[in-house]
Structure formats: C-alpha cells, structure tokens
Design brief:
Shape: elongated
Largest sheet: 10 strands, antiparallel
Distance between the termini: 94 Å
Helix content: under 10%
Order of helices and strands: HHHEEEEEHEEEEEEEEEEEEEEEEEEEE
Structural class: mainly beta
Oligomer: single chain
C-alpha cells in the first residue's frame, strides 16, 4: 500500500549534493575588530577573577536603611525556638557490603495543635507542630585485612578502618489525618525551619473533637544498604471551632490589652502612625508569617524624637509591621518568623520631645517599606476590637481621639 507523503518525509531526507571545488572569498578583519574579537574569545575561555566572582555573589538580606540607623549587634533566635538534629552512625563492612546501625533515633513530632475552621460549605482542619528533619549521618567504612583464601575458609574478618562518610540528608515524610474511621490526605502541606502545617477538608456535618495524625518518615542510602523508617500516630485535641478569618493578621499579644493612643489624627500627633498599646515588658507576637528586614535603634529624628529599639517584619503579602520602644528582640535580620512567634519584649526605649517614655508598644502596619505608607492596624488585624478599650481616657479624654473603633470609650 502507498505510504502517505507526510509519514515518508519523517524518516527520509535527501542528502545534499557535495559541492566540488567550492569558491571561497578571502575575508579581512580590521585590526581593532580583530583585537576586540580576540578579547571576547579570551573572556569566554578564561574569564577574569572579577567576572568569575559575579557568578557566585551570595544574596544577603540587609537592613532597610532609608529611614533608620543600625547599631545593634546582638543576634538571637526567635524566643522559644529549639535547634534539634538527628545524628545517625553506621558501621559498613565494604568487603561484604554489610551494614550495622550504631545509633539513629529520629525525633518525634512536638507541640501539635489542631484547629477546625468553618468554611460554610465544608470544614477545614488545620494541624501545626514542630518537626526536626535534619539528619546527619556518619558512616564508618571498614574492609577485611584477610586475604581471599582466608575469607573462603570462613575465617573471621579482621577489620581495617578506611574512612568515614559524613552526609546531611532530609528524609521522605508523609502525614495523613484519621477522623471517625476515615483517612484524609493533606490538601496543603508546608515546612518552614522547624515548623510544619497541613490542612484537609471534611464534611460540614462531621463532629470533630479530636483527630489522629499518622506520621511516617523514612530515608534510604542505597550505596551503603541503609534504610530507616519510623511510623507514629498522635491523638490531637481540636481547639474551639472558629469562623473563617477575614483579615490577614493576628493581634500582637496573646491576651487582651488596652490602648493609650489610636492610629490617625489624635489630640497628640497629626498623624499618629500606629497604635500605642499600654503594656509593660510583655512578650510580643509576629502578626503574620514574614522575614525580618530591620532591627536597630531609631535615631532618624535625633535623640529627642526616637523610637528606641525597633523591629521590622516584611510579611508574605508585601505589607510591613514595625514594633517600636522595645526592651529586647529575639530574632535578627534575615530570619523568617511564623505567625504567633514571640519576636520581642515591650519596653520604654527612645524618647519624645527629649522626655523619657512610659512603658508601651508603638505598633505600625504599612502597605510597603515606606514610613508614609502606614495604615490603620484595626482594619487588618483579626480581633474583636470592642474588647480593646482605651486606657485612662477619663483622666485624659484626648486618648479617645484618632481612628478609635469605638468612640467614647
């Protein structure tokens, strides 16, 4: 039968006919262009030190310097965070390809919490906790000193140490939620540093008082015949069911506190760029996930108008939160923080009109990094603001001014 032309062309191509005695024209390159061409070739073959260094420039997070000066040098991890790692050691006999475990204990999950969020058409289960994935493996490699004949005669291996392989690995992990006899796979899952979260959906008719979290972790190093796995199940009580959140950030404290000055045009500042919370040496929370981009001492307007110790977080949605007048902070520029992490302790650092300040936190939310992009935090923080009252307004009625969400109290 006839082969279709388009199919024929896929497999057959005519060879071009050779050209006998091809005619070539001599080409001449001006001296300057020749030098330029030679230089480009040399750069490709042997790039300069400066050119090579540009390829390996490491990106470093720096303090945002457009407004503040920076002079704090102390660096600490987020308060309450822990650094844990798994150290595994194996003995590998190269002659036989056999391996023996000396030590390997993979840490369990810790600080597990579960929350049910009512999405209307369904319920969402959110599980959070601490996970430690870093595994450092040391493999001591030995061989047998015996000759082949001794080994064939069944003589015991006289071990000879060769070297130790050091590996840093991350195991494979899998989690699922068990509820009322059903298994639910995660719809979303994420790990940041030593924290993880996962979510799944269940029917709105499900009664969710507690869940079981199934955790499986395993790693394999085929070269040395190593395989480790761990399977655990955790029962986690579910916190009180909450409605879907409508605002991007949480309250900066883990309990109700009062306000001494609201955002906006107040009796004392026009405008007041944030909210002053009346607190003394209180742990302060990250209001959302983000990256620390600023830390230091605010002396932009001099010693007489200083915000004191401050901390700036660039959140994943592009907005910035800034904490002023801190006594201490527990993180540093370039570190990521999770919503709810304790990042600082409130204080009374700085000054106003050269006068010392009372203990409080000046808290700002900004649309971007610029100071003039400040917004009213009330509109972005999920909180029942009717419970956040104005402190001392009877003695100082001016404190009620500004963008007070409940004028008069």
């Amino acid at each position: 039968m006839d082969i279709p032309e388009f199919w024929y062309k896929r497999f057959y191509r005519e060879k071009p006919l050779p050209i006998e005695n091809p005619i070539t024209e001599p080409t001449t390159i001006p001296q300057e262009k020749a030098k330029e061409k030679k230089q480009k070739i040399q750069e490709i073959v042997s790039p300069s030190v400066e050119q090579r260094s540009k390829k390996f420039v490491k990106k470093v997070i720096q303090n945002q310097e457009e407004t503040f000066a920076w002079n704090l040098t102390e660096q600490r991890e987020v308060k309450g965070s822990q650094v844990k790692k798994t150290e595994c050691r194996y003995k590998y006999i190269q002659t036989y390809g056999s391996v023996r475990k000396i030590q390997c204990d993979i840490p369990s999950l810790e600080n597990l919490t579960a929350q049910v969020i009512d999405r209307g058409a369904y319920k969402e289960i959110l599980v959070r906790g601490d996970i430690y994935r870093d595994i450092f493996v040391d493999i001591d490699i030995y061989t047998c000193k015996n000759n082949i004949l001794q080994l064939l005669l069944g003589k015991e291996c006289k071990e000879k140490y060769i070297t130790t392989e050091n590996l840093h690995i991350y195991p494979n992990i899998h989690m699922s939620i068990l509820l009322n006899g059903k298994k639910y796979s995660p719809l979303s899952f994420g790990i940041s540093q030593n924290n993880f979260f996962l979510t799944t959906q269940v029917s709105k008719t499900e009664n969710v008082e507690s869940i079981d979290l199934e955790y499986i972790t395993a790693f394999r190093i085929s070269q040395f015949n190593i395989f480790e796995n761990k399977k655990e199940k955790y029962t986690v009580s579910v916190e009180e069911e909450v409605q879907e959140r409508t605002k991007p950030f949480i309250f900066p404290f883990n309990q109700i506190v009062g306000v001494s000055q609201w955002h906006g045009y107040t009796a004392y500042q026009k405008p007041h760029t944030g909210i002053d919370f009346s607190v003394v040496k209180k742990d302060t929370l990250a209001v959302g996930d983000g990256l620390i981009v600023g830390k230091g001492w605010d002396d932009y307007y001099g010693e007489c108008l200083s915000g004191g110790n401050y901390l700036t977080v660039r959140h994943d949605n592009g907005m910035h939160s800034v904490y002023f007048h801190l006594e201490d902070s527990f993180t540093d520029v370039g570190k990521r923080v999770k919503e709810g992490d304790i990042v600082a302790k409130t204080g009374k650092s700085g000054a106003w009109n050269c006068q010392p300040l009372a203990y409080h936190l000046h808290f700002e939310l900004r649309e971007n990094a610029q100071q003039n992009s400040h917004v009213n935090p009330v509109e972005y923080i999920e909180q029942d603001w009717d419970k956040i009252l104005t402190v001392g307004y009877k003695q100082n009625p001016g404190r009620l001014s500004g963008d007070n969400p409940h004028p008069g109290r």
